[in-house]
Amino acid sequence: MTGSTAPRTARPARLSKIAALTLWLALGACAKKSPKPIHTEPWLAHPPASALAGIDAALPTTRYVLAAPSLIRFELSAKRGKVQGRITKLSGELTVVLGALAQSRGQLRVDLSSIALDDEDANGATWLARVQTALGGGDAGAAPNATFDLTGFDDVSPEALEPARVADGGGPPRKARGTAVGNLLLNGFRVQKREPLEVEFGFGSDRAVPASLTIRSRAPLFVSLETHELHLHEPSENRERRRNRAALAPHDVRVTLELHAIKE
After folding, report:
1. Options 3.40.50.2300, 1.10.10.10, 2.40.128.110, 3.40.47.10; which CATH number does 43-263 get?
2. Nearest alpha-carbon partner for 196 in 181, 179, 177
3. Average pLDDT over residues 106-135
């Protein structure tokens, strides 16, 4: 009888040790640090989505193209004061869904070789030369450019544009407000941006479809030079001078839009 009871008491003891070892290993695994998330911003450039993505095919759309005098204005704080200027070579198109403005899509293309300063003083000229050097780091002979792919609108008011009445001919212009959401591609990096806009609709003989659009910023769009790896230094500068200059260099450019588009 005594010989038969010893194995029965030893087996539970072994099971208890195995269970304890398993629990210890599980706790040890949980205690390990989780891997750091992969750095994904700024995103390297990739082919943009179609401008028509997200548009309800059942709704009628109207296509507009950018025209003169569209321009972008910019401002930044440099070492010796503010630098202000404009960019005048713009192109692009906008597909507007008048019955659901939030579904409108489009693309803005900016020729950065058309940067001009309001005041051509020595400080501004030096800054402009450095910008042109920074933007010239791509393919030889290629004009520097930037694009903004419009992927949607948030907080649109009104949600739809009703046809104009004949009595509105001499009244105030029709307007809508919203926040444009899209991807800014600059210097090889694509970053998501949000820009509050106001759109003014101009009507001609056709009271159902606007003949023109005027799009203006309601607040500046901030573009980070660091995010897009635009370093405003001379190529011949050593590392220490570059570090000192970076501490004083502007980091953000404030951008405002005034775009004019006509019905295609």
Report:
1. 2.40.128.110
2. 179
3. 81
